[in-house]
Amino acid sequence: MKRNLLIGSALLLGLTFSACKKQSTREVIIVDEPEETIDTTTVALNGTESTQEATWGGAKCSITVSRHVDKERPVVVDENGRKYYDTAILIRVVNKDGKVFFERDFTKDDFKPYVSSRWAKSGALLGLPFDGIDNDQLVFRGCVGSPDPLSDDLEHVAMYLNLSASYQLARDTKPEMYIPGMEEDEGV
């Protein structure tokens, strides 16, 4: 019996010491991989406006081209998933007597027949500046393409306004005339 009591005490003592010993446990924590975040804010392209004077049809006129955000149009999504508001471009021609000869907002939908289906769906009308006078027509050259300011992925379009205030739209046959953001050097 003494022997059993001694063995029992030894076991009890062994269990007590082993219970106090800090045991290392291996914990596995499962964490989901972080998802790539895409900026969900909708970006508005900068508004621009330029006015030039010209002599057209023997008379002076003022030509104003202004780009503005058109929040009523569907939002454009670029190749990186970033959202942009589409734009509209107002062209206004005023005679020397102050009467408005021509005034109209243009959107990329006006140029749908002249650009690829890709840009008709996911592009924006980036610009349509006055380029000069050719055969008694005011010539405006611009582009429809990626709204990302760092992209040069676009298609060139043109608008020709004649002296009877009617206009013609077309795919631009001289795209080297205008590229957004590229100004001519003033010389060295």
Name the poorly predicted regions.
Answer: 177-188
Structural class: mainly beta
Query: How many helices?
Result: 2
Provide the helix percentage.
10-25%
Compressed to H and E, one letter per element, the order equals: HEEEEEEEHEEEEE
Provide a short characterization of the protein structure.
The chain is mainly beta. The protein has 2 helices and 12 strands; from the N terminus they run H-E-E-E-E-E-E-E-H-E-E-E-E-E.
Provide a descriptive summary of the structure in words.
It is a single chain. The chain has 188 residues and is mostly beta strands. It contains 2 helices and 12 strands; from the N terminus they run αβββββββαβββββ. The strands form 3 sheets. Strands 8, 9, 10, 11 and 12 form a 5-stranded antiparallel sheet that branches. A 4-stranded antiparallel sheet has the order 2-3-6-7, with no helix packed on it. It has a 3-stranded mixed sheet with strand order 1-5-4, with no helix packed on it.
Topology:
Elements: H1 2-20, E1 42-43, E2 48-56, E3 59-69, E4 76-77, E5 83-84, E6 87-95, E7 100-106, H2 117-122, E8 124-127, E9 130-134, E10 137-145, E11 154-161, E12 167-171
Parallel strand pairs: 1-5
Antiparallel strand pairs: 2-3, 3-6, 4-5, 6-7, 8-10, 9-10, 10-11, 11-12
